[in-house]
Amino acid sequence: MPQNTSVNRRIVLSARPRAAPTAEDFRLEKDSVPKPGAGQVLLRTLYLSLDPYMRGRMSDGPSYAPPVAIGDVMVGGTVSRVEASRNVDFKDGELVLAYSGWQDYAVSDGTGLTTLYPEDPHPSRALGVLGMPGFTAYMGLLDIGRPVTGETVVVAAASGAVGSVVGQIAKIKGCTVVGIAGGQAKCRYVIDELGFDFCIDHHADNLTGRLAAACPKGIDVYFESVGGAVFDAVLPLLNTKARVPVCGLIAAYNTTELPPGPDRLGLLVGTLLRKRIRMQGFIIFDDYGPRWSEFAGAMVGWVQEDKVKVREDIVFGLENAPEAFIGLLQGKNFGKLVIQLAHE
Ligand SMILES: NC(=O)c1ccc[n+]([C@@H]2O[C@H](COP(=O)([O-])OP(=O)(O)OC[C@H]3O[C@@H](n4cnc5c(N)ncnc54)[C@H](OP(=O)(O)O)[C@@H]3O)[C@@H](O)[C@H]2O)c1
């Protein structure tokens, strides 16, 4: 792992992908390390979070957030160390949650930085279970999904950063929890380690039939992160008054056209109407920002008590971020995907 402290390596967007991103859509550049001005801090990135939303930032289509400009550093949440502080609110050596993007160093005036507990033995978790993905799982499930003890909750992308937490919270709430994940290893982990009741491999045949068998009482809450064939299997199983938090649609992030086949909009809307289903999208910080402390209080306790278990997929080296991100969109990650750039 490079430890050169005089060069700032950064990965910029070199081209907008038309479908799935490729290595050519990214470019590694080198520059001198920036110097903090009065009131600023110099941050060294230790951990960089890779998240599916970054695919949206690579495109310039309609979105809830502006795209990354061609030639700009890819955006991303980071755990960073204050290397040099000229801001009275931050001390040299402190770890902060920042938004430095895909680069070794960044300068900040302190806006949006959150100091992490110095004694935290796992600072990278501030990018996962104790950060944006955990917050997304908590609010999406509890505020929109509203699970009730004894109900059946189905969770897409169940071994991932958000889904793994959704299912574990649903277990804490006394629900029967069925995960959907890609491959036997992920499914075994979801049941054996995370404590879900069932997990269905969406790569295997007859997804619809196997999901129906795992949900004999139908589905009361479906936490949607995927769309596509997974949602097709879920839709007929939704119960009257089911709730569907729409968190993401990762199966469609690399597509350029609507899928072929008959128009299924009537089926969807008709099902929502007949069964009085509530299906609601949300963007975590836009919709729930002020409720962060409620989430943090609950989640820190659950993690400390081992009621919510954590799996990180840590890849070493900034230069490996593009390949790891491309893999995230293909299900190659196993747990919360984090790039480690430097030692703590
Ligand atoms: N609304 C919000 O504010 C918000 C915030 C955070 C995240 N999200 C969304 O939440 C979802 C999960 O994010 P995450 O960070 O937890 O990622 P993640 O689950 O750690 O990683 C993505 C996973 O998606 C699955 N996947 C990828 N392509 C797929 C496909 N074509 N069909 C089915 N599954 C596919 C893969 O798991 P398998 O191998 O198991 O298929 C992959 O590992 C994403 O849709 C993301 O955009 C939304």
What can be said about this structure in brief?
By secondary structure, the protein is of the alpha/beta class.
Q: What features would you describe in this structure?
A:
- The protein is of the alpha/beta class.
- It is 27% helix and 24% strand.
- The chain contains 10 helices and 15 strands.
- Strands 3, 4, 5, 6, 7, 14 and 15 form a 7-stranded mixed β-sheet that branches. A 6-stranded parallel β-sheet has the order 10-9-8-11-12-13, with helices on both faces. A two-stranded antiparallel sheet has the order 1-2.
- 42% of the residues are buried.
Give the topology, please.
Layout (H helix, E strand, L loop, with lengths): L6 E7 L12 E7 L8 E9 L3 H5 L20 E8 L9 E4 L6 E4 L5 E2 L16 H14 L6 E4 L5 H12 L3 E6 L2 H9 L5 E4 L5 H8 L4 E5 L4 H7 L3 E9 L18 H11 L2 E4 L2 H5 L3 H13 L7 E5 L4 H8 L7 E5 L4
Parallel strand pairs: 8-9, 8-11, 9-10, 11-12, 12-13, 14-15
Antiparallel strand pairs: 1-2, 3-4, 3-6, 3-15, 4-5, 5-7
The structure holds NADP nicotinamide-adenine-dinucleotide phosphate.
Essential attributes:
344 residues, 6-stranded parallel sheet, 15 strands, binds NADP nicotinamide-adenine-dinucleotide phosphate
- Kindly name the structural category: alpha/beta
Query: Strand percentage, roughly?
Result: 15-25%
| Average of the residue pLDDT scores | 96
Instruction: Extract low-pLDDT stretches.
Output: none
Number of helices: 10
Tell me, what's the shape? Answer: globular
Helicity, as a percent range: 25-40%
Q: Would you list the SSEs in sequence order as H and E? A: EEEHEEEEHEHEHEHEHEHEHHEHE
Q: How far apart lie the N and C ends?
A: 13 Å
State the major sheet.
7 strands, mixed
The radius of gyration computed from the alpha-carbon positions, rounded to a whole number of angstroms, is 21 Å
Bound molecules: NADP nicotinamide-adenine-dinucleotide phosphate
